[in-house]
Amino acid sequence: MKSIIPDYLDEALAQVASDASGHLADYIPELAAANPERLAAVFATTDGRLYGAGDVDTAFTIQSISKPFAYAMALDDAGFDAVLAKVGVEPSGEAFNEISLERDTGRPRNPMINAGAITVHALVGSPQLTPAERVARVVDGLSAFAGRRLEVDEATCVSEMQNAHRNLAIAHMLRSHGILTEDPTVVVDGYIRQCSVQVTARDLAMMAATLANGGVNPLTGDQVVGARVVRQVLSVMATCGMYDTAGDWATQVGIPAKSGVAGGLIGALPGQVGIATFSPRLDPHGNSVRGISLFERFSSDMGMHVMEVPATTRTVIRSNRASGSGPDATRVFELQGGIRFAGAERIVREVVDTAPTEPRLAFDLAMVSSIDDVARRMLREVVYRLRSEGHHVEIADPESVMGDRVRA
Ligand code: GLU
User: Fold this and answer.
1) Nearest CA-CA partner of 231 in 61, 13, 68
2) Which atom of ligand 1 is nearest to the CA of 114?
């Protein structure tokens, strides 16, 4: 059988293909020369499977889509405190290149607007790096997210640098507030190199899938950044990723996302999939017109809104039954699926309500696919209490989802 997903993507592209609204970004001359008809969509699963339709191998510059990834690198390299001291996490509701900083601290409001992203660029790598080494660290990091070697597109870089008056103004303002401590021109040059890294829709989907996969690149298996960093980055993408339309996006699409002025758009659906689209014509906010339509379609067709999560808790108890008699009488709780706080609460409640009288108790975890820290601690406590009440408790845990401590 042929997979149904490429057909779905073809169909989705066909539905938006005729929409010629919007304009190419023209403040960077090189971008104004792009072919506006290009159109692509790619899904990358968290186990590395790619499904694509359209111009999936066309190269374009990453632009602002580099921002969440550089933010991830800065958090990983410099630590949360150092980064948060210089860049906030509040949506600005302003355009990407707005010349504004927090009134009291002089900090850029978030890492997704240019002021924040220019500051973040300077925080990547160790403070001792030369500007060229910092750019190399950024390109290496972006490549690790993509799972292949990426390069800077020199033509776009030169073209943008010649027209970087606004970013230079922002950087000088950051320097005057002491947020930047280096030469503003040098930092903007590095930031523009970061924005000029060439990618394809395929690369972007894999980069998004790395975020969706807790920071582990699904292709290479490399832990590119830690899970805590990923949580921070996805949170900022969810609230600030779409410039001044973040609220509309959060309510209508509900996938942590980031757009770029070359026409790329990524979405990372935690635990499920990385998505990328490419279509160069932009709306007045700087977001890809057909990219937005595609994401709206994906979100509603496939129930991808992060706030729409099915209740899995009802099914965590597969069975609760008694077996044997006399001193061998056993109460067996057979658990299943992914267990988090709400699932663990259902299990605690089931045990309490059952008030087992059998001398032996067994928890069968063979069908449990995952269990998070909180749920694990709650189950350990249940076992501890049952044992202190005199029950003999056994755990069947062939996949070691509980870790070892509880078994003995
Ligand atoms: N290099 C662009 C700039 O800083 C990126 C903007 C974007 O993609 O939104 O102006």
Assistant:
1) 68
2) 4
